[in-house]
Design goal:
Keywords: Hydrolase. By secondary structure, this protein is an alpha/beta fold. It is 34% helix and 24% strand. It folds into 2 domains: 203 residues, Alpha/Beta hydrolase fold, catalytic domain (Rossmann fold); 43 residues, no CATH class. It is built from 10 helices and 11 strands. The strands form 2 sheets. A 9-stranded mixed β-sheet has the order 1-2-3-5-4-6-7-10-11, sandwiched between helices. Strands 8-9 form a two-stranded antiparallel sheet. The longest helix is centred in the middle third of the chain and has 17 residues.
């Protein structure tokens, strides 16, 4: 087992009825902060955010709420270096994101949960696919607007001369409209992104693993054809395009949630199994939902 025992330590503190704040320590000793939408079902879906986002991403919150209405518990968390989690933000970190996801999954396995699915938006989509390529313990994966070729899309954020600048200075500081530095792209993190090849990884996903790629037809950040490229590489794959939706599904939240939950629900258990620790809380949780 690649994780130290610290990976599975967690602290729980109540936010409100039906939601719990949870801290999970990854294998690097960093605390990952998350919110559990508790329905008292043993079935659990883990939700992963995208680049420079967090567990508060509108799409993740919407999907978590939709899953809860179906009686499926959901957990959304911040990757290390993002949101409330510890660690430094890095431009690349694709494999570390998968490591963070591994720590989260191992924690819930020890909590006797059944991981029904892992869902990721944008960069989080890459994380869930890399996870599925490396491990074979989650059999439903949803990739929302993930990028197939990680060598693409860099110029839009860093400029066409990004390689010359990073070779010269060793880093690029990305600034906002007011000139304030919002994050730094190091040479190491750039190499991480450029050497992460999603295509070969997708070929390693077990053919018994069901994978859904959801993409907006009006995605302005990741081209729609990336969804079709995933379709050529992933053995057991379905593509769902949402007409008119942008990268963040700004005006298509309900449709996105329906598509994702419907795909997950097909593989749902026939019987409702209750988490033992929820006895006494089950009625109030489900009444709220």
């Amino acid at each position: 087992m690649e994780h130290s025992s610290s990976s599975h330590k967690a602290k729980h503190s109540s936010v409100e009825v039906g939601e719990l704040r949870i801290t999970i320590v990854n294998k690097y000793g960093e605390k990952l902060m998350g919110v559990l939408h508790e329905t008292c079902s043993t079935e659990l879906v883990i939700l992963c955010h995208g680049f420079r986002s967090s567990k508060e991403c509108t799409s993740l919150v919407t999907i978590a709420s939709a899953l809860a209405k179906e009686g499926i518990t959901a957990f959304r968390f911040d990757f290390s270096g993002n949101g409330e989690s510890e660690g430094s933000f890095q431009y690349g970190n694709y494999h570390k994101d998968a490591d963070d996801l591994r720590a989260v999954i191992l924690h819930f396995f020890q909590d006797n949960r059944v991981i029904r699915a892992i869902v990721g938006h944008s960069k989080g989509g890459n994380a869930v696919l890399l996870y599925a390529a490396r491990y074979n313990d989650v059999h439903t994966v949803v990739n929302i607007s993930g990028r197939f070729n990680l060598k693409k899309g860099i110029e839009g954020r860093l400029g066409n001369d990004y390689m010359q600048r990073i070779k010269k200075n060793g880093f690029i500081d990305v600034k906002n409209m007011k000139g304030k530095i919002v994050y730094r792209v190091t040479r190491e993190s750039m190499v991480d992104r450029l050497t992460t090849d999603v295509g070969p990884a997708c070929l390693l996903i077990d053919n018994k693993c069901r994978v859904l790629t959801v993409h907006g037809s009006a995605d302005e950040i990741v081209p729609t054809e990336d969804a079709l490229k995933f379709d050529k590489k992933i053995p057991n794959h379905k593509v769902q395009l949402i007409e008119g939706a942008n990268h963040y599904f700004t005006s298509h939240q309900a449709e996105l949630a329906f598509v994702v939950v419907d795909f997950i629900r097909v593989d749902q258990m026939d019987t409702y199994n209750q988490v033992p620790s929820c006895k006494g809380l089950n009625q109030s949780f489900r009444a709220r939902l």
